[in-house]
From TrEMBL:
Annotated SHSP domain residues: 47-158
Family statement: Belongs to the small heat shock protein (HSP20) family.
CDD domains tied to this protein: ACD_sHsps-like
Pfam families: HSP20
Signal peptide region: none
Name under which the protein is recorded: Hsp20/alpha crystallin family protein
Annotated PROSITE patterns: SHSP (PS01031)
Length: 158
């Protein structure tokens, strides 16, 4: 009996290892993009949470940091951007708009509700001069790097 189940067991172990490797790779590639969306029910209580991807690109240039986030289907009025030290936080709410008609959804993959996506910035930025634009579902945040730090000269002791 052992000789009959050994190939099946080996195949199942290989399939499991492949599936686990695939999930690890997806988690690594998605990084922090996997974001929790919280919906509110009719009474204003938080409903079950859904998950969605909020993809971001972060580019460092000599004098600035540029972040692009894909946020399709949102209004710019529903977005909020905060900078605290080296952390950029983008939060907002993506509203679910029920289309009229008698049909029902058979597939619903888009995430709706309130969310928050945090990114650690590689340099301190000047929050006062930061600019943001939202067009065609893409949020672009242009943050000038700060010159807060400075070198302190060491003097000879008297």
């Amino acid at each position: 009996m052992n000789t009959l189940t050994a190939p099946w067991r080996h195949g199942a172990q290989q399939a499991w290892a492949s599936l686990a490797a695939g999930w690890r790779d997806l988690r690594h590639r998605a990084g922090g993009a996997l974001t929790r969306f919280r919906r509110k029910d009719a009474a204003g209580r938080e409903d079950e949470a859904g998950w969605g991807l909020v993809s971001a690109d972060l580019r460092v240039e000599d004098d600035r940091i540029i972040v692009r986030m894909e946020l399709p289907g949102m209004n710019r009025e529903d977005l909020q951007i905060d900078i605290d030290g080296d952390q950029l936080s983008v939060s907002g709410e993506k509203h679910f708009e029920q289309e009229s008609g008698d049909g029902s959804y058979r597939l619903l993959q888009c995430a709706y509700g309130s969310f928050r996506r945090d990114l650690i910035l590689p340099h301190i930025v000047d929050a006062e001069r930061t600019q943001a634009r939202y067009r065609n579902g893409v949020l672009r945040i242009d943050m000038p790097r700060s010159d807060r730090g400075r070198r302190i000269p060491v003097r000879a002791a008297d």
